[in-house]
Amino acid sequence: MNLKYLKLAEDIKGELKKRNLPAGSKLPSIRRLSEEYNCSKNTVIKAFNELEKEHLIYAIPQSGYYLVNEPKLPDNQAGTIDFLSAGPDKHLLPYKEFQHCINQAIETYKEEVFTYSDQQGLLALREQLTNNFQYNQVFTFVERVVIVSGSQQAIHLLTALPFPNGKKNILIEQPTYFGMIETLKVNQAKAFGIELSMTEIDLEQIEYHFKNNDIKFFYVIPRFHNPLGHSYTNDEKKKIVELANKYDVYIVEDDFLGELERNKKADPFFAFDPSGRVIYIQSFSKIFLPGLRIGSVILPGNLVGNFLRYKFSADFNSPVLSQGALDIYLKSGMYRSHLKKIKEVYFHRMNLLKQSCGQFLPKGIHYTKPDSGFYLSIYLPNNISSKKLALLLSEQKVLLDDTHRMFLPEFNKDNLIRLCISQVHEKEIIQGVKKINEAITAFDNKKPHAIYPHN
C-alpha cells in the first residue's frame, strides 16, 4: 500500500506549525507542492484530503486550500472570570469554515436560499439531520422533522400548542432551564414542579402528577442538565416513558447538549418510544454557533400540521441561508470533526472544575458532579443567600448565576449557584473556585446546620 501521501500530510502539518500562519492563510498550490516534494499531484491531493478530515484545512473550489482557525486562548485581559455566560467558547467557533459553507450554500441552492421555501425546513437539511440523529440513537423519518429558529422557539410553540391528549398543564424539573420558566409565564400556562438532584428523581411523584394533574407534557433535559449537570440513567428514561404511555402524557426532550455525550450506551428518552410519545428537540446553539438560530424538533405525525400552523404565526420559515450552510457543513464532515474537538475541551474543563471544587471549597459544601457538559452547581449553607453571594463575587470580577430564574416560586430555596465552564479556561477555573471559597468562608461565620440534597 502506498502511504506516501500520509507522510506528506505529516510534513505539511509540521511546516504549517513551524511557520505559525494565521487562520485563512492560503496554502501553496498542488502543482508547487508536487514539484517541491517530488511526488505526483494525486499524492498531494490525497494528503490535502487527509488534512481536511482532521479539520486543519478547507478547500474553496477554483481557488485553493486554506488554513482553518486553530484557536489560541488568551488570558482574559479584563481580569473577569466568567462562570455566567453559557454560549460556546468564542475561540472554538469555526468562523472560517462556516463562512466557506455559506458561500457554497449560495452557489448550491441559489434561488432557494433567497426565496420562500418549505415551511417545514430545507429538505436537504432535514435529510442530513435525520442521518445525524442516528449518532445519538435517534431514528426517525424526514417527514417528522421540522426546522425551527433555535430550541427556544420549539419550546414556546409546544407550550402554546393544543395536544392530542386534550390536557393543559405542564410538568417541569426543579430547577430547570430559565427559558422554559419564562415561556410558561408568557403563555400563562399552569406548571407543576418535581425536584431533581444529581442522584435521583422521584418516580412515584412523577406518576402522581401524570395521574392527577392533567399533564400535557413533561419537559425534561435528559443529559448535562441546566443548571445541575444531571443525566438520567437509561433505566429511569425507560420507566418514565412507560408512565407517560400509561397516563397519556407526552415528553418534551430538550437534548441541547446531547452531542457532548461520551457514553455510547447512554440513550435519549426518544430511543425508548420513537412512535411519537417523546418529542425530541436538538439545538446547535451551545455546541456550534448560537447566531445560526437553527434547531430541529421531531414530532409525532399527528402534531406536525398544527405545529407548522402555530410556527407560521411566528415566522414563515427559519433562515434558509443558515439551513443551506448547515447542510453543507454536516455533509462535509466538518461538524463531526468540530464536535470531536470540543467534546474533549469541555470534558477536560469540567473535570478540572470538579477537582477544583473538591480541593478548594470548604468542607461540607456539596456540589454536583456532571460527567461532562457545561454546568455544575454548588449548594450553599442555609445562612448564605445565592443572590448576595453572586453580588459579592461580581464585585470581585467572578460572574456566576444565582439560579433564581430557574425555579418556580414555591421551589426556590435561595441556596444554589450555577457555574458554566464554556467561557473559562484552566487558570481561570482554579482562580475562580478559590475566590468562591473565600466568599463562602466570609459569609459562613456562624455555620448553622444546613440541609443538602443527596449527591
From TrEMBL:
Residues in the signal sequence: none
Cofactor(s) needed by this chain: pyridoxal 5'-phosphate
UniProt keyword annotation of Transcription present: yes
Family of this protein: In the C-terminal section; belongs to the class-I pyridoxal-phosphate-dependent aminotransferase family.
GO MF annotation list: DNA binding; DNA-binding transcription factor activity; pyridoxal phosphate binding; transaminase activity
Domain HTH gntR-type: 2-70
SMART domains, per the entry: HTH_GNTR
Statement: the UniProt record of this protein carries the keyword DNA-binding: yes
Keyword vocabulary terms for this entry: Aminotransferase, DNA-binding, Pyridoxal phosphate, Transcription, Transcription regulation, Transferase
Taxonomic lineage of the native organism: Bacteria, Bacillati, Bacillota, Bacilli, Bacillales
The species this protein was found in: Metabacillus indicus
Entry protein name: GntR family transcriptional regulator
